Amino acid sequence: MGTDNISSVMVIFGGTGDLTHRKLMPAVYNLLYDKSLPENFCVVSVGRRDKTDEIYRNEVYESIKKFSRIKIDDELWKNLRDRIYYQKFEFNDDYGYSKLKDFLRMLDDKYQTNGNRIYYLAVAPEYFELIVEKLHQHGMAENEKSWQRVMIEKPFGKDLNSAVYLNKKITDVFTEKNTYRIDHYLGKEMLQNIMVIRFANVFFEPVWNNKYIDNVQISSSEMVGVENRGGYYEKAGALRDMIQNHMLQLLTLTAMEPPIDLTTDSIHDEKVKVLKSLKELTPDLVLKNAVRGQYEGYRNEDRVSPDSDTETFAALKVFVDNFRWAGVPFYIRTGKKLPVKSTEIVIQFKPLPGVLYFKEYGGLMPDLLVIKIQPEEGVFLQFNAKRPGTLNKVIPVRMDFCQNCQVGMNSPEAYERLIYDALRGDSTLFTRWDEVEYSWRYVDKIAEVWKNNKPEFPNYKPGTWGPYDADELLLRDNFKWWNIGGFYDENV
Ligand code: BG6
Question: What does this protein do (predicted)?
Fold first, then answer.
């Protein structure tokens, strides 16, 4: 990766928060390690706690030591350390912004950063609008002779209306071109690989349609509960926290048509078409095709209401109603306190006509292609072959490609790629406004029905695959969830 034309100051609002310590600072350090950080670059963290540069730098050092994928090298750290600054002020404090503005000008001179800025809003969503407004009022987002970009963490709104409102506030100041909406899943290696696997191999693309595919299963499971995020999660739930963004992004990449080229807009255009083709949800369809769950014990978590109706699990049956996919169910599921931490896309192919290999030969298992997003990154293929030494007995065999199992392979973290792309001005791996808009349109229909129907919660035990209704969703169609996370054996 090169570092031309990306000289800038990265200003992180929320500099003392979890995201900054666990993800952003280690990502900056790893970019430096990979020689992808420009020489003319520094970081200013803004927070509300009182601390000196010195104290802050020591804290960042500890975080990098703990969370970086690459072991910290003290020489290299010295190179970064002196380029990290801390500024304390409340996000509504005008004096704080004018001081910051002067400080950034001084840093421009020191680091030759030409007025280029990345403002990273690693703060609770209620501050997005305020900070953008203040940056505007103080003439810090003017985009004349230099560039100023804003990176915004999710959640981008809590429904369509609030997202439209927020979007206007942000793009009035920064314009769409300079707005980088983060969906960190897009920064993951294997999400970027989905398009390559699909569009660079002759044996996948021709069968990637409703003639050959029986169903698609997209799962993202976590073993953890809500941990210390009960306050946020109560208002979000699995639908807003995972489905509206990460899961629908996985769906669009799996279902999209090949773009006419690899430019940002061409790719986003195709992704949006998938979202526009999602089969309209009526309240009846929501009741039939959307399942929610809550794990036992969630109501006792910190900052969670004792009679909470927030879902910690969601499973959907979705149709992409276009020429390629009509009739193929896409099953999506995500949840907390499930048996494994894993994200995978399973493509189940249609059976061949059953005229040759009947039961006496062992029956035929469906061909499966699994795109393994995390923790293993790779592709798994299951197909039928003759069992050695028998009379034509057929068994499923597997080819398993794991790219991050190879020695010395240490895939960059999502945030490294995202920060680097924002520095380069490439928004391909960020969500364009219409993607966010159409995702909310879809998800709002589900949220509306769920709001008006009281669930029977809790309905699944920690360490299980969610409520029975999620299994039922597939059994009705004579399918079953394929286990994920490398436990395919059980299915054979
Ligand atoms: C975040 C959600 O966006 O993604 C979290 O807010 C979730 O609730 C996380 O745990 C999962 O991300 P990853 O990269 O660990 O799969």
Answer: Catalyzes the oxidation of glucose 6-phosphate to 6-phosphogluconolactone.
Which residues are paired to 395 by β-bridges? 385
Residue 372: both structure tokens together: 């393994």
Nearest-atom index, ligand 1, CA of 224: 10
| Cβ 153 under 6 angstroms from ligand 1 | no
Which one, of 480, 487, 250, 256, lies nearest residue 371 by Cα?
Answer: 250
Q: Above pLDDT 70, what percent of the chain?
A: 95
The three-state secondary structure class of 316 is strand
Residues in the chain: 492
What is the extent of the structural domain holding 443?
Answer: 186-491
For residue 85, what are the β-bridge partners? 44
Task: Check: pTM over 0.85? Answer yes or no.
Answer: yes
> Which CATH number covers residue 473?
3.30.360.10
Pick the residue whose CA is nearest to atom 15 on ligand 1: 222
How many domains, in total, are found in the chain? Answer: 2
Q: Report H helices in 127-188.
A: 128-137, 160-174
Which one, of 492, 214, 188, lies nearest residue 351 by Cα? 214
- Bridge partners (DSSP) of residue 193 are none
Q: Which atom of ligand 1 is nearest to the CA of 245?
A: 3
Work out the average pLDDT over 142-168. Answer: 93
10, β-bridge pairs = 43, 118
3-state secondary structure of 32: helix
> What are the pLDDT digits (tens) for 166-175?
999 999 999 9
Express each pLDDT in 226-256 by its tens digit. 998 999 999 999 999 999 999 999 999 999 9
Q: How far apart are CA 367 and CA 485, in angstroms?
A: 18
How many angstroms separate the CA atoms of 206 and 202, rounded?
A: 7
For Cα atoms 361, 365, 366, give the angle at the middle one, nearest 5 degrees: 145
CATH of the domain at 137: 3.40.50.720
| Cα–Cα dist 167/183, whole Å | 15
Evaluate whether residue 444 is within a structural domain.
yes
Tokens representing 199 are: 């569009």
* Residues 194 and 140 grouped into a single domain: no
Q: Is the dihedral of CA 322, 256, 157, 342 positive or negative?
A: positive
**Intra-chain end-to-end CA distance of the chain, in Å:** 43
